[in-house]
């Protein structure tokens, strides 16, 4: 999580931090420290979307992955 962070940023730009994290996950694949938690969040969100009648499977998966990605960038 801290590998791609800019030490001069001081937690300022959320979009830039998310971009760095997603690009790092795309380059490193399963070796990146954020990949497994984000995929776990995706699976939990998809399961919740499958169980809950109001939320669809893709929406639940997107929400779960987005939440875990946000928590990796902003703990």
From TrEMBL:
The chain crosses the membrane at residues 42-70. This is Secreted protein with PEP-CTERM sorting signal. It comes from Novosphingobium aquae. The keyword Membrane applies. The lineage of its organism: Bacteria, Pseudomonadati, Pseudomonadota, Alphaproteobacteria, Sphingomonadales. Keywords: Membrane, Transmembrane, Transmembrane helix.
């Amino acid at each position: 999580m801290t590998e791609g962070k800019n030490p001069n940023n001081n937690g300022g730009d959320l979009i830039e931090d998310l971009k760095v994290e997603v690009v790092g996950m795309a380059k490193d694949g399963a070796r990146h420290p954020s990949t497994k938690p984000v995929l776990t969040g995706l699976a939990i969100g998809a399961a919740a979307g499958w169980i809950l009648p109001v939320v669809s499977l893709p929406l639940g998966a997107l929400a779960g992955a987005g939440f875990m990605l946000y928590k990796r960038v902003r703990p």
